[in-house]
Amino acid sequence: MGGLLTGLFATPEVNPTIKGGAFYGHGMQFVYQLVANSVAAAYVFSATLIILVILKYTVGLRINEEKEAHGIDISYHGGLAYDYSHHGDQSDHGPKTVQFKPPEMSFEAAFMKADPAEQV
Fold it and tell me: Which residues are in coiled coils (predicted)?
């Protein structure tokens, strides 16, 4: 968007190598910007497509349907996202309150460098 707006609002005071944007009497500047943005978009699209095709045929873009149906918590991440220890009974799996007491220090001390001599 900014590249196209440059073609509209560009002034020779900012860049003396151009005559100005479309609003300053040089409509071709917008065409130059439109072509440059189109080429950049085509390049990005092509490069992304090539990368996705390579990934699709090497490591794959999706997991198989069986793993997707069962969830990837265990197969990919090695653990469960939720605790189903009561064999599917989810009645007591709501949010839990945890008591946390912040360390005793001033606000400024939290942002000061630690002294290596004081480390335990």
Answer: none
